Amino acid sequence: MNYLVLLIPVLFSFHQIFVRLGSREAETISGIYVSLLASTIIFIPSVANPTLDGMFLLYMSLAGVLHFFVARICFYHAISRIGANLSAPLSATRVFFAALLGIFVGEYLTLRVVVMSLLIFAGIVLISRPKGKADAFGVTLGILTGLFSALSSYFVKFGNAVDYNPLFAIFLGFALSTILMTPLAVRKDLSHTKFYLAAGVTVGIAHLLRYVVLKDVPVTVVEPITSSYPLFTLLLSAIFLREGEIFTLRSITGTLLILGGIYVYYA
Length: 267
Known about the structure:
mainly alpha; EamA_dom; EmrE-like
């Protein structure tokens, strides 16, 4: 196995830690813009091998906007409101939404999907009230991150059916999302966004590694390992973000239930 795959969840987790640190120093909108710009720059070399088919551009543009623009706005705001260690497992519900969407497009409801759904739902309930009170909006943003990421995956699937050019597809998504974000950030103060810059670089490298390892490692191996990032986020936030994060038996149990649901699905 290509052991680079083990770096992917760690990088995704560091990305979330950097976002949380950045939210203490800068506006979230400014941070999103800087992180998108950094992620876009990483994939600029892919323009040397573009795919200019109209349907490919349409599908991958929709995928990119949903994942890198809409979902990132939801995720970064969720992290700023409820912290990294609660937002991470909520965003991992993308696996649940992907399975649910699959049923609507003709896939079968299996016992595995039912068990996964029950575990993830129980986890969300616990995370929603980690200390007996809820930030309903923050929790909703975390869950919406999972939903929009899952929707994005279906457009990626449609785009890949036209042509398989993942690096250019990622660049297209990041570049278009950066353009859409520019009017929102043009008058914002972009100073004190160094942690968001680090977040953009880190998550860009994580996406790059994910596509590199998928060339040799089966999706059924890569996805469960990638989806373990909430556990790493929990550990890293305990080390670097002890103050301001929520560590209770409810929140930790909720995280483990959501991860358990994901691994039941991939088992």
